[in-house]
Amino acid sequence: MKFASFKSSALKSVGAVSLCVALGAGLVGCGGNGAGGGAVAATVNGQEIMEQTVTDYIANFRTSSSLESDEAWGEWMVANGYTPESVREEVIDYYVNQDLYDQAAKEYNVTVEQADIDAALEETKAMFESDEAFQEALEASSMTEESYIEDVIRPNLLQTKLAEAVAAQDTEGEGDDATLAQAQAMSEQFNGAKRSSHILLTAEEGEDDAALAARAQELLDQINAGEISFEDAASQYSTDTGSAANGGDVGWDALSTFVTEYQDALAGLEKDQIVAAPVKSEYGYHIIKVTDVYEVPEGGITSVDQLPTEFQEYLTYMEQSNASQNFSTWFEEYRNNAEITVNPMPEGLPYDIDLAPYEEAAAQNAEGDAAATEGTEQPSDETMSAEDQAAADAAAADAAADEAAAGEAGADAAAADEAGDAAAADQAADEAAADQTAADQAGADAAADQAAADQAAEGAEGTQQ
Questions:
Q1: Which residues have a Cβ under 8 Å from the Cβ of 395 and sit 6 or more positions away?
Q2: Domain residue spans in the chain?
Q3: Could you tell me the CA-to-CA distances from 397 to 390, 392, 424 in Å, in that order?
Q4: pLDDT, tens digit, for every residue of 91-116?
């Protein structure tokens, strides 16, 4: 894990809602590059990064992390695989990147307007219960509103705008043509795509599979008889609460991954058709309805307007993700072409301590833990006395009885847990999708994150693998 990731602060609201701010969020009191006197740590295309700036950065981290004492600092470095040299290297690397972003922004005529800063600040404040809660969070992170703007908001906005400028230059003259080309390339995937809704029924306590299947069939019969609409039935009876709120809608199969049984059932349905019988999967029984089918127009896709809104949003997200990746590649090349000089580490820096005592202590602790583990191992039958063997046998018998009782209790609860397992599986899938979006477009346009979240939401709990 990068030192800078430890350095980043998390603003926490009174309600325990946390906002993880971007790289460099803890640069309070560090000053800008060139701040402080003395030695030069590095130069970036002739621009100096002062040694004092690096030292202040590390000092601020130690203070905010309660690592002021040499003992705590040494133990932390050893535990996290750092040395004073590697800490300095990563902090310098951070400042090098910041300088390069600033230099590139000037080359591309990128600036951050006050209106952009104000909007970003208000967006951050809106995540807290009150302005007082926001100020408390800043204070807890050793920041002020001014330093938060200068050290977090402004750099993030600058990087976002720079990424947009680079992407605009790379795609100049393409515009909607690029989106259309992507749509045409995916026309085979889109053709025949089906949008569906489902009602998921899972076993209630004490209900066996036969009873569950009968209950699902009874509900399907009521829908077919017109006694209740599919949407109302989903809202009232589906245990997939995520889709139930939307009448059971789980989106397009071309943009989601469903369990095999569900996808196979879709293949046999046309628009507005409902399955003849409930479909069983590992999550329970699904009553499935196809609500829409997309067919590529004869002659192919000639305009993105021919696509469903969800497809258009997906293409936009893909473009933004690709732009983010392209920017990373561009910046790597930009950095490789820069003239970067890192000077040797001076002696006597306050964070440069001897790690030998802490490394030795860590090794001794590891040996002690290993010895303690070995000491808890059960002796073999050959070395146990008759009395010890009898006690062990009695303990084993008690454990077997407890295990049997637990097994009975677990069996009683298994049916009730099945629905929770399905929901948990989808929750994990949703979180993974959100994480992926963040990884693809760190610090970039929030629209991409929203598109990814919308896409992930279309996967229903209990239908996605």
A1: none
A2: 3-170
A3: 11, 9, 36
A4: 999 999 999 999 999 999 999 999 99
